[in-house]
Amino acid sequence: MDSILVAAEGKPLRPLWLVDYFEMIKLVMPRGRSSKILADIHIAHINAIAYDMLDVFLGVTPAFDMADIRKKLFSGQRGGGCSQLNGLLAAVLESLGFNVRRVLSSVVREGRASKFFTHMVLLVSADNEDWVCDAGFGYRGFLYPLRLQHNAQDIQGIHEYRVQKKQDATWCIQYKRSALWVDMYVFKEKLYESEDFVMAQFFNSYFPLSPFKANLICAKPSLEGGNYLLNTVLVSVKGGVRAQLVIGSVDELVDVLAQYFLIKVDSADFVALPVGIFDVVR
């Protein structure tokens, strides 16, 4: 998987896993480092790989090593969390020559930012500008990179986003819900050590205060809306039309994961599920 592809004359060497990656996301491997190339990779990455926080319920230790992440996402027919999805995206972009910075952000829930910075975000340079890249936020995550510039706004299908600079090195990403701008997360431009991201992933997977410890969550955003699974409730939005499905068994859950998120698991793979998950009255 990590062996080097023999290059044709005049072309740079590329690792074989990078070839596999571009086959998986159905994109021709680009040459260059433009913002257009960055945007094409970003949306293709999101379209191909779901946001998937199932590891804890499958008895799987969340992978942080890049070789393990590639195995899970490429041949394991699974998705991943922010550190896996953005970690892979960062490795891809760096292999193509992009300058990538990994930072941690604090996600805003119920109007309040967490005091824990546990969500990985990427800052990428292209065409003499900095861009926010995030392939691992989930349902309301942006499909294309956002320009790291105060008040920069971007309409992406039915979604609209805005970047706000709060103070010296603190930024906020916002989502427009109806007529109101809602904070998604805040991050600081600072240097982080690799151990910081390992701790963040550990928190997301195992810490009692993490929303992923007791909730089964998957998501796949799209320009038309997207799909979001929270425990036994699947919400699908397409062209502004919202549909909801309540899942009644593990077998139904497996079918939903395959149909809506391209995630392949068996019923027997689940070693634990949130208590009372199927007690919802239809």
TrEMBL record:
MF terms in GO: acetyltransferase activity
Q: Output the superkingdom of the source species.
A: Bacteria
Gene3D superfamilies from the UniProt entry = Arylamine N-acetyltransferase, Cysteine proteinases
InterPro entries (UniProt xref): Arylamine_N-AcTrfase, Papain-like_cys_pep_sf
Question: What's a Pfam family in this record?
Answer: Acetyltransf_2
- Member of which family? Belongs to the arylamine N-acetyltransferase family.
In its UniProt entry, what is this protein called? Answer: Arylamine N-acetyltransferase
Q: Source species, please?
A: Pseudomonas poae
Name the lineage: Bacteria, Pseudomonadati, Pseudomonadota, Gammaproteobacteria, Pseudomonadales
